[in-house]
Amino acid sequence: MSWFSCIGKSHKKSKEKPEKRKEESSLSEKLKLKPLLDMKKEILKDGADHISAQTFAFRELAVATKNFRNDCLLGEGGFGRVYKGRLESTNQIVAIKQLDRNGLQGNREFLVEVLMLSLLHHPNLVNLIGYCADGDQRLLVYEYMPLGSLEDHLHDLPPDKKRLDWNARMKIAAGAAKGLEYLHDKANPPVIYRDLKCSNILLGEGYHPKLSDFGLAKLGPVGDKTHVSTRVMGTYGYCAPEYAMTGQLTLKSDVYSFGVVLLEIITGRKAIDNSKGVGEHNLVAWARPLFKDRRKFQQMADPMLQGQYPTRGLYQALAVASMCVQEQPTMRPLVADVVTALTYLAAQKYDPDSQPVQSFHLAPATPPRTRNRTAGLRKAKVED
Ligand SMILES: Nc1ncnc2c1ncn2[C@@H]1O[C@H](COP(=O)(O)OP(=O)(O)OP(=O)(O)O)[C@@H](O)[C@H]1O
Ligand SMILES: [Mg+2]
After folding, report:
1. pLDDT profile of the chain (384 residues), mean per 10
2. Is position 293 annotated as part of the catalytic site?
3. Which reaction does it catalyse (predicted)?
4. Which of 4, 14, 282, 327 has the fewest CB atoms lying closer than 10 Å?
5. Pseudo-torsion of CA 332, 277, 200, 323, nearest 10°?
6. Vertex 81: Cα angle to 238 and 109 (nearest 5)
7. CATH numeric code, 15-143
8. Which residues line ligand 1 (CB under 6 A)?
C-alpha cells in the first residue's frame, strides 16, 4: 500500500522517507518495473509533474456502484468488469474497473496502469481518477466516457442506435491518432500502446475519442497463461505481422494496429469476422487487393454511411489506412504524419445536403452473400 501512496499521492520526491524509496526499488525489481520508474523520473525531470491519482477505500467504490450491482455494469473485458458509479464524496460519475485476477502478474499490470496513467496526460487519453488496492482488491477509477467505446458504435448495433456519420468517423480517427502521437512522440521514453483496437477507444460528448487501457496491456505478456492467450486472441487481427511472428515490438506495430482501426472506421467491418464469407474474415487481407484499384474504393465504404461521404475524403482516408497496414514496418508512416493527414480530413466537413451522396448497396447483415455487391457500386459517381 505504501508504494501506491508513494506513486499516487506524493510527487515531492525530496520529502519521501528513505524506507519508502527502498520498498519502491525492491518491489519494482520484483515486478520488473524499472523501465517505468525510469520513465517516471524522465517525465518528472521534464517538469510534466502531474501525478494526480487518488486512492480510494474499497468501501467507497462499493457504495459508488451500489455494491457492484449488475445494472451498473458497463462492460467486461479480459481484466474484469467495468461499472458505472457515483462517488459519494464529490458526486462525480466514474467508471470503475474491478480486476478479477489475483497474484503478482495481475498486480504488476495494475501498477503499470496506475503509473502510466498517472504520468501521461493528454486530451485524447482517458483520465485515471484514482485506484484502490485494499487487501486483494484491485480497482481502477476512470473518468466516465458517456458514449462508450468506438466498438459499440461500429459493430453489432441495435436497430435504433444512430450510425456514425462520416464527420464523426474522421473526428474519432484524428483524435485517436493524436493520442497515439502523444505516446510515441511526446512521452519520454516513448510508450508503445500495443493494444490499439476499437474497444479501447472510448468516446466522450461530441464523439471526442480517448485511448484507454494502454497501461494494462503495455508491459504484461507473462505470468497467467490463460490471460496471455486471451489477450492474444483479443488483439488478433490488430497485431502487426512482424510482431506476431517475432514478438518484436516497435512504434510501427502501433501504426499497423491504427491502420486496422481506421479501416474498421471506414468500412464498418470488424478486424476479424468469421461470419463473413471466404476471403473476408480478415479485414486487412480483404482490403489489400482492393487498395490496388481506386475504382474499387467505393466498395469499401461502410454501407451504413448510405453513400453519405466525400469521394475524395474516402480515397484519402483509405490511402492513409493502406500505408499504415503495409507488411513492411519501415514502409508505414510515422504517427505524426498520420495525424497531419487525418486532422486535414477531419477539418473537411461533409454536408450531405450540399454535397453529392454516392450510390450505395446495402449489404445483407449475415452471409452467405450471393448477390454481386459490386454491381451497384460500379455505377457510383466518382468525383476524382
Ligand atoms: N471509462 C469508461 N467509461 C465508460 N465506459 C467504459 C469505460 N471503460 C470501459 N468502459 C466500457 O467497458 C467495456 C469493457 O472495457 P474493458 O477495457 O474492460 O474491456 P475491453 O476493452 O472490451 O477488452 P480488453 O480487456 O481487451 O481491453 C468497454 O467496452 C466500454 O464499453
Ligand atoms: Mg479496454
Report:
1. 30 35 42 53 47 87 97 89 96 94 64 84 95 91 97 93 96 98 87 90 98 61 31 66 83 95 98 92 96 93 96 97 96 98 97 82 42 30 28
2. no
3. L-threonyl-[protein] + ATP = O-phospho-L-threonyl-[protein] + ADP + H(+); L-seryl-[protein] + ATP = O-phospho-L-seryl-[protein] + ADP + H(+)
4. 14
5. 10
6. 65
7. 3.30.200.20
8. 74-79, 82, 95, 97, 126, 142, 144-145, 148-149, 152, 199-200, 202, 212-213, 234
